[in-house]
# Entry
Amino acid sequence: MFVKEGIIASPGIVIAKALVYEKIQVEVNKSKIEDAEAEIVKFQNALKKSHEQLETIRAKAVSELGAEEGAIFEAHAMVLDDPEFVEGVELEINDNHLSADHAVKIVTDRFYEIFDQMDDPYFSARAADIKDVGTRVLHNILGIVQADLSQLDDDVIIIADDLTPSDTAQMDKKRVMGFATNIGSRTSHTAIMARSLEIPAVLGLGDITETVKSGDLMVVDGLTGKVCVNPTKQQLKSYENEKLKYQNYLKELEELKDLDAVTLDGRKVELVGNIGEPNDVAGVLKNGGVGVGLYRTEFLYMNSEVMPSEEKQFAAYRSVLEAFPDGPVIIRTLDIGGDKKLPYLPMDEELNPFLGLRAIRLCFKEIGLFKIQLRAILRASVYGHAHIMFPMISSITEVRQAKTILLDCMKELDEEQLPYDKAVKVGVMIEIPSAAIAADIISKEVDFFSIGTNDLCQYTLAVDRMNQDVSYLYDPFNPAILRLIKQVTATSKDNFFTGMCGEMAGDPLAAILLLGLGLYEFSMSALSIPQIKKIIRSVRYEDAKKIAQAALDMETGEEIMDFVKDSMKKLNLNI
# Structure
């Protein structure tokens, strides 16, 4: 018996036998070739076969998991058509006389390194997608058939170094009870798939494939991030009890779905979802979200080979607004640049992309692009309660500049006699310390704030949370962060609200603190909504304010976190 601890990717507790899923190790032909034309034909045939396989997998993913998961494989197919990938491989074959398999491996590794080193966690996690596509092409060149997870005889927990989207899309969903992997993060597709399947997963275990054998009895505890291999009878009984308690807890959460997020003493807040595309709306509705607190519109741009037209954007925004006729839909304008690049928008390399030409700064430079998006949002605004949100704002000057461009778009629509909501609400993301400090000034020009804690923490604490050497310094409970949040929420008044769309908004440990600090709107991953709602409905607002005030007087994040945990125990709130 032994216990290992990793990263919680999907909550829950599962007990089943382990199935170690090992990938075939590929050896490429490193000899120089003479017939480049024949190798290119091999490569092109492998691309065609890969396309066919991906379409089959995409259709299966859509039918079993939904359109969002199916879109993953549309993105994979786009890699197969990417001129940089295809021409890169053919160049290696023609100029360096490499075999087709060797050329694919070199180009795949090159792409993988670029994505893996990006600061943005979403894009660094996409490195696994690049490797998945490259491996598929490589296997098709070499005629390799990987082990089949689609037909399983018993309930199992999959143990792997990592699981690609292709692996998870094809597996027997009725038999796979959970995942445990050597590598991975909460933003990886393994984690996303596990949450979509609603099965427990613990990732980043280091060497789990070396320490577990197929057939070992195993517990994956997605509540604590621990896995237990060959537990004792006493441990097994304890885990079974915890599993039953968690199942009962989920039933309690389900009963709250259609209830308001209101405290015991009557303070009502809004719980809304973060989405990347219209297909994500279903998850928000399923989990009781009343609207959208962050629509990341950059996915419209990244999932397209050309600049999305006004009509395409209008249709996407309209569909989301119509899904929430009574709730707010906060549409963030394009937040791209630096390490997030578009193939059809040339951008210079930057030494520090997080401090460079990105988000609102890029939109000011590319005003034509910006106006197309603003026009699309305005036109869609008549189909619901659209809110426009500008990201990466550092001063009131930028707010005024953005609003001037928005006003120009309104005048154009008036001249064209196209309808829009003339009272559309306008707000900004507070993710730069200067904006948080000057919140009282900026509030004069907007209708709402949404605090982006991910970047606010990084900029305030001067720490890259993706850098393992300094990630321990990334602490949303740091007194400086809480004081900035309080400074922002203090601007709220009758016709002005402050929300939050960073990861902190969906953290159960932070819920009472944020409530007490005066946060009105919590925007989060759809799966987090029920648990945050239960916490809100189980506490008095007056008690939350006292907890928050006491935390503001403390000196370290550790002290604050311990205090909050103790306070929640006293209130009989288990997380």
The chain has a mean pLDDT of 89. The CA atoms of residues 58 and 74 lie 7 Å apart.
